[in-house]
Amino acid sequence: MNTLPISPSHIPAAERLLQEANCPLPACPQGLVLEKEGEVVGVCLLGGTRVEMLAVASAWRRRGYGSFLLRRALHALGAFAGKEVTAALPADEAGRALLAKFGFVPRGAEMLRPVRRQLTALELGHRLLASHLRPGGFAVDATAGRGRDTLFLSRLVGETGRVLAMDIQPDAVRDTRALLERHGIRWAEVHTADHARLAEFAPPASADAVVFNFGWLPGGDHALFTTPATSIPALEAGLEILRPGGILLASIYHGGANGTAERDVLAPWLAGLDEQKYTVVRCDFANRGGKDPLVFLVHRC
């Protein structure tokens, strides 16, 4: 799955998608298209620092593709680098809810994403990892996803260190390898494997840090998600390869198709680890209505 600037070859597909949304295509459209397996499944029209329109093919809705495309569009507009961004007010409730998810609020006949930085689970996790990992260390990303944690870990340990990453979904492995290649990272290895097989790739008590993100692949099909049946064996393997003094970071994403079932199993499991062997810190985003991930930091004594 890729996002690309709109080019002349994309015009027919973009026009069809916008027709579904009863929106005409401008004469010289600017923005991004979302391609999956060579097919254009989404389009986002941009102008200046404004999101003009976002449309996803009806067959691909409610799978996270709209969120993935909007996130890429906001990156392109500089929203995550401190720029204020506006958006045309969608006619439908689903469109308004999507914008609200990314911090947009109504302002007259449009929506505005004010400049403000809110601490996210990803940023919290990265701060914790940065305070612990040093050049030359060994870090493991047990759920590579789109590769953001793998890249971050690789930068922390540097060329003298080692990073091991894995994911069961081929799309995730491909995207992670491509991201590392774009940034010139050669000291990270990425495998297509279930995170429950983690101990097959690293010896006991060897890792300085192990990272898990439980839930679904960002921008992927939300009907595919992790479950306690493999997540608990994966955590056991992660603790096995963690060296004394090392940390394990587990972010549990919940809601949507996977509900709270995995959270309700993993949270007490982690809280029940032997206090003589581990210190477990649970981080809640207490004032956000319970929708944010739970973040657990486990320190091996």
Describe the structure using short key phrases.
Aminopeptidase; 30% helix; 8 helices; Rossmann fold; seven-stranded mixed sheet; single chain; 2 domains; 14 strands
Task: Describe the 3D structure.
- The protein has 301 residues and is α/β, with parallel strands linked by helices.
- It folds into two domains: 2-113, Gcn5-related N-acetyltransferase (GNAT) (Aminopeptidase); 121-300, Rossmann fold, CATH 3.40.50.
- 30% of the residues lie in helices and 28% in strands.
- The protein is built from eight helices and 14 strands.
- The strands form two sheets. Strands 1-2-3-4-5-7-6 form a seven-stranded mixed beta sheet. A seven-stranded mixed beta sheet has the order 10-9-8-11-12-14-13, with helices on both faces.
- α4 (121-130) runs parallel beside α5.
Blueprint (SSEs and pairs):
Elements lengths: L1 E4 L5 H10 L10 E6 L2 E9 L2 E7 L8 H13 L7 E4 L4 H9 L3 E3 L2 E4 L7 H10 L7 E4 L6 H10 L4 E6 L2 H13 L5 E5 L14 E8 L13 H14 E11 L8 H11 L6 E6 L10 E7 L1
Parallel strand pairs: 4-5, 8-9, 8-11, 9-10, 11-12
Antiparallel strand pairs: 1-2, 2-3, 3-4, 5-7, 6-7, 12-14, 13-14
Helix pairs in contact: 4-5
